[in-house]
Amino acid sequence: MRNYRQLTTALLVVPIIALFYIGLFLTMQLWYPSGLELSSWYAHLFHFTVVYLMWLVVLFSYRLFDWDSLRTTQTFLARLLGALLACLVIAVLYFYFQPNLLITPRRFLLVHLLISGVGIFIWYMIIRNAAIFNRRSNVYIHSSHPSPGEAQSLIEQHGLLGLNFAGTLQPNSELVARSIVVVPTRAELSQEDSTALFALRNQGIRFVEYHELYESLTRTVHLSVLNELWFLQSIDYGSHQLFDALKRIIDIVLGLLGTVVFLVTLPVIAALIKITPLFTSGKSSGGVFFSQQRVGQNGRVFTLYKYRTMDSAAVNNTWTQRGDSRITGIGRALRALRLDELPQSLNILKGDMSIVGPRPEQVNIVKELEAQIPYYAERHTVKPGLTGWAQLHVYAGSLEETRRKLQYDLYYVKHRSLLFDLEIIIKTFYNVITFSGR
């Protein structure tokens, strides 16, 4: 599943890069029909390559490389138009500081993006129709699967990845090559079922355990599969000296940038927090900052710093709910813009936290969750983060939402890498500028 996802993602990314350059060539032909000198072409090509790298980041942050964006044309078109507008702004700003080039940024770039945007839309529609009408694999659920309805729903939700639910595998089922059979865990298969499946080994049939399919498609870990052996086989508890060193360098660089922003904006934000009681009949009494004991890597407790966004008289060690009445007016604005997290740049520089990782929870809540959710403490294998994979998908204000959040946290612990961190940072940036997610 993972290889197929990577292949199909490449069918989105690579042609878009080509369409950028095709758009540049066609626009240059329209703008300069008599042609340009080779040196001028090279100069434009270099600068546009720099711009295209930034454009790819924008498209990625708008999730146009996610297959979910293809599910509805309306959703895809809205994301594409938003991304193209952001690309236009970035390019205009970039070329404003390149006065030696021939182009007139606004009109030239508008035509360029129009040509490339139309090409991208057409290509996405081709890929979408190909994915829908030319399914590659019939997927069967083994009759011994304990949750066939859940498995069927999962497969049908990911039809754009080339999966077609074909039913339950029965003893008399006729399978064709490239079919996939979803089986439960090895421990749940009887010897008779294992023998029957083994007889199909030379017929071009693929077999995948349900929890592996679930993890590949949802990019989360199925909690039902967790046991000590799973952690020993799936999580690398060894030393990661190179990864940790590079990650720490990135944390320090971004932490320093965050500290600069924190110090520059401190007077304004502090003033807004302090004057709030003047307009709220005393609500929001308390200091500018809020500190709390949180659980970090390997269970180590540290002090986390934030701007205070609640009435200090109502702050206690409980979960923050959606629409929490304890949050002040200015607090809601700070939370929407993520500005309340700025003081945590100090936690990052101190090494208590990283830019990316599972969000640190309160000490008393962690004790409760460890007692109610098996293996919850394993999310502390890595350093907690300012943002994380779970934060992009779940707002945990209850036990059930925390279970869901743990699925994402454990997936991050298992698959953590610098590229994965970059993906999370870019998607977090998208959530911030679109006021979505939290």
Structure characterization notes:
- The protein has 438 residues and is α/β, with parallel strands linked by helices.
- Helix content is 53%, strand content 9%.
- It contains 14 helices and eight strands.
- The strands form three sheets. The protein has a four-stranded parallel sheet with strand order 2-1-3-4. Strands 5-6 form a two-stranded antiparallel sheet. Strands 7-8 form a two-stranded parallel sheet.
- Strand 7, helix 12 and strand 8 form a beta-alpha-beta unit.
- Helix 2 packs across helix 3, helix 2 crosses helix 14 and helix 9 packs antiparallel against helix 11.
Which sheet architecture does the biggest sheet show?
4 strands, parallel
Percentage of helical residues? 40-55%
Shape: flat
- Cα-based radius of gyration, to the nearest Å: 26 Å
Number-wise, the strands total: 8
Q: Which sequence of strands runs across the widest sheet? A: 2-1-3-4
- Mean pLDDT over the full residue set: 83
Q: List low-confidence stretches.
A: none
The N- to C-terminal Cα distance equals 30 Å
Topology order in helix (H) and strand (E) letters: HHHHEHEEHEHHHEEHHEHEHH
Residue share in β-strands: 5-15%
Count of DSSP-assigned helices: 14
SS content category:
alpha/beta
Oligomerization category of the chains in this entry: single chain
List descriptors:
single chain; about 450 residues; four-stranded parallel beta sheet; 14 helices; about 10% strand
